[in-house]
Amino acid sequence: MTTESNSRTEKIYVLYASQTGNSEQAAIELCSQVPTKLSPSVIQKLTGTKDEIIVEPVHMQLDDFLELDKCTWTRLMVIITSSYGVGQAPLGGYRYRDLCDAWYKQFQDKSGGETPKKVLEGLSFAMCGLGDSKYTTYFQNPTRINEAMHLVGAKRVGPLGKADASGTGNELQGKVVEAWMKEIWSHLAKVVVEPPLSDERLKEMQMDTVQVCRKINPDFEYDDGSSSGSGNTMMIALAILVALVAVLYYLYMNQN
Question: Where does the Flavodoxin-like domain start and stop, copy by copy (predicted)?
């Protein structure tokens, strides 16, 4: 008896926000290891699947995921970010932090009497936070993102990396990030072999997120296709009007 195998591609977002560049470098390093650490043969060895799964990582800033890729969730993502200032988001993470704060507030505010929607139910994510424990606001930004994503239904896989710039010995920030990466691969592999989320579910996640982004940021732009349709209609109407004017002008000139 033979077991049928399938071949498919899994896109994984590796999202970061970084003030000094450390989180960005960690994201780039993780992406560079994907071809070997999550190759089809390694995934088969780690999980026992017969499927041939090709993982394609895409690294970008957290805010670019919202504003450029328009919240196009995949069912698995990795987040690497630090804190800045008094527990705020670093460069490239302001909008995403606003989104997480809005989600967090929805679940903290019970006055409406409604249970907030599990916007990201079905999504899995891995996360590593960077910071410096000599500051009292150490790890506040990664903590808020982690909590907010759990509240809206996402499930974290693997350990929550906690890389401290003031760490010593085996707790040096670079060593902690390296150890977290080594441990995370098997967790990511177990997710990519699960049945993919439907296109309908991914679209629902996207539109629910877009709705919140529009509410907290009036400048947030998302084209759902309706505007292009109305634009095409206007262009057709304009072309008809120009043609009509040309015909009338032709008739007028021939009469004179």
Answer: 12-185
**45: which 2 tokens?**
């060895």
**What confidence tier does 111 reach under pLDDT thresholds 50, 70, 90?**
low
Structure tokens at 14: 């590796």
Give the C-alpha separation, 206 to 228, whole Å. Answer: 19
Torsions phi, psi for 20 (to 5 deg): -110, -10
Contact 57, 14 (CB under 8 A): yes
Task: Look at 250 and 93; give whichever has higher pLDDT.
Answer: 93
What b-and-e string marks burial along 208-227, b requiring 16 or more CB atoms within 10 Å of the CB?
A: bbbebbeeebeebebeeeee
Residue 235 in tokens: 């262009």
Q: How far, CA to CA in Å, does 45 sit from each of 40, 54, 57, 186? A: 9, 14, 20, 10
Q: Are strands 7-17 and 155-156 parallel, antiparallel or unpaired?
A: unpaired
Q: Are the C-beta atoms of residues 104 and 153 closer than 8 Å to each other?
A: no
For the segment 131-141, what is each residue's pLDDT rounded down to a tens digit? 899 888 889 99
Is residue 78 helix, strand or coil? Answer: strand
32 close to 220: Cβ distance less than 8 angstroms: no
Distances (CA, A) of 145 to 160, 162, 187: 11, 13, 20
